Amino acid sequence: MSTPVDFNLMDDPWLPFITTGGSSGTGSIRYVLTHAHEIRDLTVDVPTQYPPVLRMLVAVLHRALADKSASPGTFPWSTGQWKTLHQQERLPEDKIALYADTWRNVFGLFDREEPFLQVPEGKLTTVEDKTVALLVSDASSGNNVPLFSAGRDDSPSPLTPAQAARWLLHVHAWDTAGIKTGAKEDPRAKAGKTTGNHTGPLGDLGVLMPAGNTLKETLLFNLLVLDGELTSARDLPAWERGPLSAAWVTRVPVGLLDRYTWVGRRIRLIPENDGGVVVRKAVVCAGDRFEPLAKPQTREPHTAWLKNRPKPEEETPGKPTSLYRPNRHTPGQELWRGLGGLLGWDRYLDHDDSLKPQVLHRLSKHFARGRNLPVIQLRAYGISYGLQNAVISDTYFDTLPLPVVLLLEGGTRDLGKRVVQWVADTEEAARALGHLAADLAFAEGGAPDTEQNARDRVTRQYFANLDHRFRAWISKATDPDLEEEYRAEWHGFARREARILAAELVSRTGPGALRTRTRTVTTKKGEPITVNLVIAQQSFNRRLRQHLGAGEV
Questions:
Q1: What is d(CA 109, CA 119) in angstroms, rounded to the nearest whole number?
Q2: Contacts of 471 (CB under 8 A, 6+ apart)
Q3: pLDDT tens-digit profile of 473-494?
Q4: Could you give phi then psi for residue 349, rounded to 5 degrees?
């Protein structure tokens, strides 16, 4: 099939954005990098497109700013260089232009010989081309029927080249696992299929990305100092490695740029003319797979980590068992509720050990000795899969204002640990409310499922009522010297809201709850547990005072 026209991602507009002045536009890679200081942020089709798009831009920036005479030829390799770049008004346009001109030829979306992050025509063929529903996460395709989709894979809307490019990056990063159509040119395909495919590399993570007031700040917050732990002399983005073929491998990424541009699938977009270039069909086959690492927490910077305690049956003989596993986001849960795990302060609470993301750890080093530290926006992205990771069941997105001072550690700079403790206190207050709701339901003679429903309902309501207040409160928690004021203010918010909801629960409780009932379970000492309205209220008040103090009655 002849290519109708090329679409070059380096110079043709495909990245929607909003400027610092509030106007919207669409730019090429070259444009958004050279105007990053004037762009507030990118605006993508779905939130989960943002991480792979930003990681691609960061990889371009690393290479554009690189000193080609240095080894491994990446940038920056010192905190001082990063700070210099951060202090400049704009990114170096001359270096970006030079890189763009040098590598422009490999950014052609429909190029005959080397289409961007794809396999050329004639080298990736299947029995039947599929629709672009294979690329779009909210469109059903075969077994991939998201719970929120009403689409049909036989007639999805065609994609513009710009849309196709954004979804191309998305499917490399987030595609479902399971059986994939086998390419005729793939030596590992059997009976037209490949099995054992994993999700895209971001699918296992609870992705976390710091963002600033402009795209320039966001890019720099994610531009890590590339030391030997993160990169190597062989570390290159996928487009600098040469043309792709249908054959795929299982290997360890050789560095951060390799990881950021990982070719998780073998793909070919099929353009056609319809009053302009559109994409209605595509080929999506098995792609490269990650080799397990013993210490992935040092290589993947955009997720927090939890101590891994695998069951014996989950261990694979001959393969390393990681000490840590990605801390994935909980669907429907506010991001701030897991703040301890995100900041690596769970150990401070004597919970399971956790590690903050490398991107936050290294960002804190840049500001360790500074004053007037910024408040960043911490963005969280994730996808929940079902049916052995073969379908998308839900997506996650949240953003949280986060003062950089909360990332710092040592001496008077342990404010982050205190905030984590206050969040834990709030969780205990929520449990107290849940116990009250369950006790009142039991006292009224309700069934066990009634108790659990009452517990879940009031807990959700409590955190929903606190959500806006917490985000406003934490954005102001910037001065370690005001620790006690911050604690008193937040405990006051959380305590008052708990009492309001408790009063509402009691007001809705019928007179039957005054009768004392005995639960079938006993205390640890074997004593019977009796419940009535008065006992339930007393228990709630005691627990609330324990974690949030007495305050005003």
A1: 11
A2: 336, 400, 401
A3: 999 999 999 999 999 999 999 9
A4: -95, 10
E strands, 404-450, in order:
none
Is there a contact between 462 and 333 (Cβ–Cβ < 8 Å)? no
Query: What does the block give as tokens for 501?
Result: 């909801």
Predicted confidence (pLDDT) per residue in 39-60, tens digit: 999 999 999 999 999 999 999 9
Report whether 440 contacts 506 (CB < 8 A).
yes
Q: In this structure, what DSSP letter does residue 41 have? A: E
| Per-residue CA distances from 408 to 61, 361, 369 (Å) | 27, 9, 10
Give the integer Cα–Cα distance in Å for 504 and 437. Answer: 10
User: Is the backbone peptide bond immediately before 76 cis, with ω within 30 degrees of 0?
Assistant: yes
What per-residue confidence (pLDDT) applies to 143? 47
Residues 6 or more apart from 538 whose CB is under 8 A from it? none
468 pLDDT band, cuts 50/70/90, is very high
Closest CA to 225 of 75, 365, 350, 344: 75
Contacts (Cβ under 8 Å, ≥6 apart) of 463: 334, 337, 430
Show the tokens assigned to 354: 């956790």
Amino acid at 158: P
Structure tokens at 36: 């990053």
| Phi/psi of residue 211, nearest 5 degrees | -130, 150
Please say whether the beta carbons of 297 and 356 come within 8 A: no
Who contacts 480 (Cβ-Cβ below 8 Å, separation ≥6)?
Answer: 405, 412, 413, 414, 415
HEC string of 311-327 equals: CHHHCCCCCCCCCEEEC
Pairing label, strands 289-290, 250-251: parallel
Segment (H or E) for 397: strand 391-403
- Please compute the mean of the pLDDT values over residues 402-411 and round it to a whole number: 86
Burial label for 368, CB within 10 Å (0-12, 13-18, 19+), is middle
Q: What is the pLDDT of residue 525?
A: 72
- The label of the residue with tokens 């052995």 reads 388
User: What would the DSSP string read from start to end of 237-297?
Assistant: -GGGS----S---EE--SSHHHHHT---EEEEEEEEESSSEEEEEEEEEE--EEPP-S-GG
Contacts with 207 (C-beta within 8 Å, 6 or more apart), sequence order: 51, 302, 303, 380, 381, 382
Q: Which two tokens stand for residue 490?
A: 């937040």
Place of tokens 């961007």: 116
Q: Peptide bond before 72: cis, by omega within 30 degrees of 0? A: yes
pLDDT at 424 over 60: yes
- Predicted confidence band of residue 1 (pLDDT cuts 50, 70, 90): very low
User: How many whole angstroms separate alpha carbon 526 and alpha carbon 546?
Assistant: 24
Please give the structure tokens belonging to residue 320.
């390393």
| Torsion angle of C-alpha atoms 95, 96, 97, 98, degrees rounded to 10 | 50
Q: What is the DSSP letter of 150?
A: -
